[in-house]
Amino acid sequence: MTQVYNFDVVILGGGPAGLSSAMYAARGNVSTAVIDINPFGGQPSNYMVLENYPGSINSGGFELMETFEQQADLFGVKKFPMQEILSIDLISDPKVILTTEARFNAKTVILATGAQAKKLGVKGEEEFTGRGVSYCAVCDGAFYKDKIVTVVGGGNSAIEEAMYLARFASKLYIVHRRNELRADKILQDRLKTFSNIEIIYNSVVKEIIGETNVTKVLLLNTITNETSELQTDGVFPYIGLIPNVEGFSGQIKQDAMGFIYTDETLKTSVDGVYAAGDVRVTPLRQVITAASDGAISAVYAVKYLESVKEKVL
Ligand code: NAP
């Protein structure tokens, strides 16, 4: 028989937003659960070093997220990692999350499911994923020792990951569609210290080519419209994020990309449903903003629970 749980707050996602909201909700003395389809920690678990999380100088991403989790543990948060989610109903009362193992009835839900790497959507990308195409420099960087690597994109992720990969690669190309990078100035300055990194501006990857593994990419110059081939052993696309909204997309108000709209209390368009971190429409996606969102969403979820209780009494 399916196990049934009843919680005041159920948080979907165990990254920095989810774990912070869990801690704040549990400290607000309401029963709190966190559910994730993966192990806890979210995206930062894959970062070698986080150098801009205040109060923690150059902490490893994995280690930092472990402390987030331990801190949530201190307040009695119930954790459900590695769940296979069958359905999510944010509209019903209570809200219901059904997994292969259990039914979670929730008075409030905080959506902290984060975002994932956007795909290039070109020929060869899917075929060579795991055979030269990777979205995780920390996971796969060591495979590219003394090899040629191509990073696609011009934002903070592309530049940070390029600098990480350049420690292994003999040569690293950054292919960027415009003539200037989007990344923060401090990262751009640091990039200049790498003698094995070359930026190819005004270019996009049109195709990823290989046999067993990737051997080259086809580039299109966005100014001249000319195509050229670039020899490479690996392709790491870092061209932005798409929100993880599978299972509940359409039940709340979202933007064209699927990111969730919230008000300043991080309430979504549905009563009792809040969103925190990268999954929501926000001007900045950082661990610190995710953690801050976690705090705000949980405090207002607890206030919502109190207001509902008052109405019933
Ligand atoms: P991003 O800031 O949105 O940058 C995406 C980059 O990919 C841009 O340079 C964009 O070009 C390019 N791009 C987008 N679609 C493309 C396509 N179809 N083909 C080729 N190029 C394409 O994404 P991100 O770098 O993944 O960062 C996501 C968020 O996390 C940002 O808010 C970022 O600041 C934050 N972040 C912060 C840090 C840090 O502070 N240390 C580290 C990592 C990420 P254009 O420039 O022409 O638009």
What average pLDDT do the residues reach? 96
Describe the biggest sheet?
7 strands, mixed
If helices are DSSP runs of H or I spanning 4 or more residues, what is the number of helices? 6
The CATH topology of the largest domain is: FAD/NAD(P)-binding domain
Helix content: 10-25%
Coarse shape: elongated
The domain tally reads 2
CATH superfamily of the largest domain, by name, is: FAD/NAD(P)-binding domain
Determine Rg (CA atoms, Å). 21 Å
User: What's the order of the H and E elements?
Assistant: EHEHEEEEEHEHEHEEEEEEEH
Bound molecules: NADP nicotinamide-adenine-dinucleotide phosphate
Give the low-confidence spans.
Answer: none
Beta-strand fraction estimate:
25-35%
What is the number of beta strands?
16
Q: Examine the secondary-structure arrangement and name the CATH architecture of the largest domain.
A: 3-Layer(bba) Sandwich
Kindly provide the name of the CATH class of the largest domain. Answer: Alpha Beta
Distance between the termini: 34 Å
How does the helix and strand content classify structurally? alpha/beta
Q: What are the key terms here?
A:
alpha/beta, 6 helices, FAD/NAD(P)-binding domain, four-stranded parallel beta sheet, 2 domains, binds NADP nicotinamide-adenine-dinucleotide phosphate, 313 residues, single chain
